[in-house]
Amino acid sequence: MDWHKVSENTYYRGRVALHAILRAMGVGKGDEVATQAFTCVAVPEAILACGATPVYVDIESQRYNLCPKDLKEKISPKTRAVIVQHTFGIPAALSDILQVTEQAGVPVIEDCCHTFLSTHRGRRVGSFGVASFYSFEWGKPLVVGIGGSAVANDTQLTEQLVRAHQQLGIPNWRRQAKLELQRWVHHALYRPQFYWKLKSLFHRLAKLGVAEGNYNPVGANEFLPVDFLLQMAPRLHRHLAKGLSELEQRASHSRQLVAQLEVELPQGGFHRPSLPPGDEVVYARYPLRVDDKNRLLAKAREGNVELAEWYRTPIHPLGREQSGLVSYEPASCPHAESRSREVVSLPLHARVGRRYVEQVDALFRRAA
Ligand SMILES: *Cc1c(COP(=O)(O)O)cnc(C)c1O
Questions:
Q1: Rounded to the nearest whole angstrom, what is the distance from the C-alpha of residue 228 to the centroid of ligand 1?
Q2: Helices then strands, each counted (H, E), the chain
Q3: Contact predicate 84/94, CB 8 Å
Q4: 101: which residues sit within 8 A by CB, 6+ positions away?
């Protein structure tokens, strides 16, 4: 693909790109948008910001992506779009999903926040739906700080996106300064062994308003935080261009680390991802299902070994009591619920190397 397209319509965040796509498709009040549970609240944030209602589809029991069978149950005449997420970089079962959506006449939007280069049956993700979106936030394969992008696969939708994009504002200098500072701190300090310390620092600073946090408070009437009216900060474009030019190198680094992890991690105590034949995965993070997630996370924190907990709940990070805010009915997606109690993920970005593989190996041996 021509990666230039990814730097054309850029937005304050990935969810803002999703919101722009939904708006360009005419999604609004009274409409439903289907999306998988086992996601983060950013996705329903975008749906709610359109005035539409999210409808949650369960994931497949062996994978972390939308279940075509459950989609068939949940799709309705009110469904105006289906968001298909390629969780951790694993391609969703697009062939089966598209059968369901084509029969119902509902367009698919691909959530490519975790991958650029994975392929499903030989075809790259992001090329199946009417549009796709990307995020360049801290945990993603290409980090610029905070930002996102939308790419449409048809001319009419592209024109609509471009027109609406011109109406969006530019983040004010305060926001830009915050982002610049955060980016600098991340760049200067971030190493896998500092993950836990930086994470807690970030949460403290976000609470104080010194750092830009990850989520907006959902659930208010007429929910439309200012984020949804903004483009990506212009100064971040050069980082984006650089990242896009290095996608292949980054992908091969990720493949190499996965190959090492697959050989070196001890047997037992966890399950590796099971992949469909014919799909090629470029992981953003390497997910493992573990027997005792909380214990392993506590040990990782103690030993300063990076290990991510997402998604901790079906609509991360919302707990059961908050799920009503995003119209998720507790227990309605049993696989998403059980996976969120079991999955941890390992980083694979450029600063992860040999030393990390040894640390995580030792961690798993200690915990076994
Ligand atoms: C990060 C993420 C988003 C949203 O990205 P933001 O840039 O944080 O708005 C959406 N979907 C998935 C799967 C993500 O991981």
A1: 14
A2: 12, 14
A3: yes
A4: 71, 75, 82, 107, 108
Question: Residue 269: is its pLDDT beyond 80?
Answer: no
* Of 210, 345, 172, the residue nearest 273 (C-alpha): 345
Task: List the beta bridge partners of residue 111.
Answer: 85, 133
Q: Say what the pLDDT of residue 211 is.
A: 82
**pTM of the full structure:** 0.96
Whether pLDDT at 219 is above 70: no
Whole-angstrom Cα distance, residue 150 to residue 132?
A: 6
265 lines ligand 1 (CB under 6 A): no
Residue 17, pLDDT score: 98
Task: State if residue 113 touches ligand 1 by the CB under 6 angstroms criterion.
Answer: yes
Q: Which tops the pLDDT comparison, 59 or 224?
A: 59
3-state DSSP assignment of residue 292:
coil
For residue 85, the ligand 1 atom closest to its alpha carbon is: 13
Residue 52: predicted pLDDT: 96
The residue type of 194 is F
β-pair partners for 84: 110
